Structures are given as structure tokens and as C-alpha cells.
């Protein structure tokens, strides 16, 4: 982008400052803030405007990626509370610009939702394609434990189940001919049916034939030594964690769940479909998984192309 000329910059700055002054008058009339709060609002908006004008962006041309860039550059080192407050101030200002001045064709403030995870020490991590390939390549079929781990990996990757849900899978939940997995009891409110790939069906079948002990228990995954009881959640987690370390892949067993959510998002699934497949009882929980890719999440949520 060419650097904006001085006249353009001055004009854009004057327009922004006028809008900010009008906004402060507006909030004083509708919900008067204290003096210190007014100072904070003014500082955040002035800093934002300065950043936008330097980029040559006029008031009527603001887009959410511009706001994201500002937040990314200014929120490093700030507390999560301060970052949320900055975003709240900007969101309210954008809402005002739409409703009172009609600067935009739609209310873009609603797009400034889940915070990009600039301040989180451990943001949800999904696996890249190359990491997924390494993980599956590291899976061995040499021992009964290997066969069990391989089946656990395939099911976790293809269904996004929580480790506790994987531990509860029974033989009756799998329709091998149809290639489907039914999960009747979930943390969320609805059961779910997952399609199983041919590779997943083969991995589960190989485990049942080659490693699963004979038992009256209907749970799919059993211990390898007598009395062959159903495995605990710990076994599910440790099986995946050990394989990830072997493959040199950073993450936790839940990274497979994040990856499943990411794959659904990239395939064009709606947030409501993803909510059901993840077994969430609220969209708020689903958004935590989807902020792994903010641009795609906005497209799913708002059919947004900016």
C-alpha cells in the first residue's frame, strides 16, 4: 500500500477525532461513565485511530483484520482483563459508528468476538497436516498394546471424542458394515453418530482380532492383563501422549479433538454442526475450539469475506 499523503492523513485523523468526540458525548447522554473511565476510553480509541491512520485507513474503511492487527501489536504483555476491556471499548465504538452514523453496510462490531489468543500461555493447539502424518507413521502394529494404541488414535482423530468418551465406547456402539460409531451418552445434551473411515474400521478390527482379550465386558478397550477390565481414561490419555512423544509431535491428547474441530471448520461445517459433533451444550464452548483460526471462524459465523 502506498503511503497516504499528508492531506489524506490529516483529513482521516480529523474525521476520526470528530467521531470520537461525538461518541463521548453520546455515552455521556446514554450511560455516563466516570472521569477515569472516560480517560481510558479516549486513550484506547486515540491509540486505535493513530494506528489506523498510519496505515492509511479511513473511518468508513475499517475492517476487523485492521482491529486484530492493532490488538496484536498493542496487547502483548497486557493482562487478559485489560485486553478484554480494550476489545470491549472498541466493539462499543464500532457499534456506535454503525447505528448512529451508518458508516458500514453491516454491524462489524459483532465480529469482534473471541479474542485472538495473544495472552494465553496454552492456547488450543491443533495438529498440522505434517504432524498428523508423523503421528500415524509412528504408530506400530507389533504388539497388542500397539494395536490398541493404533485403534485409539484412529477413533480419536476421526471423531474428536473426549478421552473419557473413547474409554466408554462399547462393541455395540460400532456398526462395522455401515462404518459408523454411535455415542449415546455425552457430556452435551445430544448423542451423536460419527462416520468411520475405512482405515479406522480396519484399525479397530485389527485390535479386536489381534489384541482384545476375550471378556464378557462390552467395552471396546480392555486391559492387556487379567482380569481384563475396561481401560481407564488415564490409559487412553497416556497411550496417545506416548505416541505423540515417539513421533516428536507437541501437544496433548486433546490436540486431536482440536484438530477434529479445525478439520470440520475448514470443510465448511457450520458452528452449530460443529457444536453437535463436539458434544457441547453451548456455543460458547465451541468458540473456544474454533478460535484456532479466527478468519475461518468469522466466515462460518457471519458469512464474512472481508
UniProtKB/TrEMBL annotation:
Signal peptide: none annotated. Pfam families: Phage_integrase (PF00589). It is found in: Cytoplasm. One of its GO terms (molecular function) is DNA binding. Residues 122-302 form the Tyr recombinase domain. Transmembrane segments: none annotated. Gene3D superfamilies: Intergrase catalytic core. It comes from the Bacteria. Keywords: DNA integration, DNA recombination. GO terms for biological process: DNA integration; DNA recombination. The keyword Protein biosynthesis does not apply. Its main location: cytoplasm. GO terms for cellular component: cytoplasm. InterPro entries: DNA_brk_join_enz (IPR011010), Integrase-like_cat_sf (IPR013762), Integrase_catalytic (IPR002104), Tyrosine_recombinase_XerCD (IPR050090). This is Integrase family protein. It comes from Desulfonema limicola.
Amino acid at each position: 500500500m502506498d503511503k497516504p499523503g499528508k492531506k489524506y492523513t490529516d483529513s482521516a485523523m480529523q474525521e476520526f477525532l470528530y467521531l470520537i468526540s461525538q461518541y463521548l458525548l453520546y455515552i455521556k447522554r446514554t450511560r455516563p461513565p466516570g472521569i477515569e473511565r472516560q480517560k481510558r476510553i479516549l486513550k484506547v480509541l486515540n491509540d486505535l485511530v493513530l494506528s489506523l491512520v498510519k496505515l492509511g485507513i479511513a473511518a468508513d474503511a475499517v475492517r476487523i483484520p485492521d482491529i486484530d492487527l492493532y490488538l496484536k501489536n498493542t496487547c502483548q504483555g497486557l493482562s487478559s482483563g485489560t485486553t478484554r476491556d480494550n476489545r470491549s471499548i472498541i466493539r462499543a465504538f464500532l457499534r456506535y459508528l454503525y447505528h448512529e452514523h451508518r458508516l458500514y453496510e453491516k454491524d462489524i462490531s459483532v465480529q469482534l468476538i473471541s479474542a485472538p489468543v495473544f495472552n494465553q500461555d496454552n492456547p488450543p493447539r491443533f495438529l498440522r497436516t505434517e504432524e498428523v502424518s508423523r503421528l500415524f507413521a509412528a504408530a506400530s502394529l507389533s504388539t497388542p498394546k500397539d494395536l490398541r494404541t493404533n485403534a485409539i488414535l484412529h477413533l480419536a482423530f476421526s471423531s474428536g471424542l473426549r478421552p473419557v468418551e473413547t474409554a466408554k465406547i462399547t462393541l455395540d456402539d460400532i456398526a462395522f458394515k455401515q462404518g459408523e460409531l454411535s455415542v449415546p451418552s455425552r457430556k452435551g445434551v445430544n448423542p451423536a453418530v460419527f462416520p468411520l473411515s475405512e482405515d479406522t474400521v480396519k484399525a479397530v478390527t485389527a485390535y479386536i482380532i489381534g489384541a482384545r482379550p476375550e471378556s464378557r465386558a462390552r467395552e471396546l478397550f480392555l486391559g492387556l492383563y487379567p482380569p481384563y477390565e475396561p481401560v481407564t481414561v488415564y490409559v487412553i490419555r497416556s497411550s496417545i501422549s506416548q505416541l505423540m512423544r515417539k513421533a516428536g509431535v507437541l501437544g496433548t491428547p486433546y490436540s486431536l479433538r482440536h484438530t477434529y474441530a479445525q478439520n470440520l471448520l475448514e470443510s465448511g461445517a457450520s458452528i452449530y454442526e460443529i457444536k453437535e459433533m463436539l458434544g457441547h451444550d453451548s456455543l460458547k464452548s465451541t468458540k473456544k475450539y474454533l478460535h484456532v483460526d479466527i478468519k475461518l471462524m468469522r466466515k462460518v459465523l457471519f458469512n464474512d469475506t472481508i
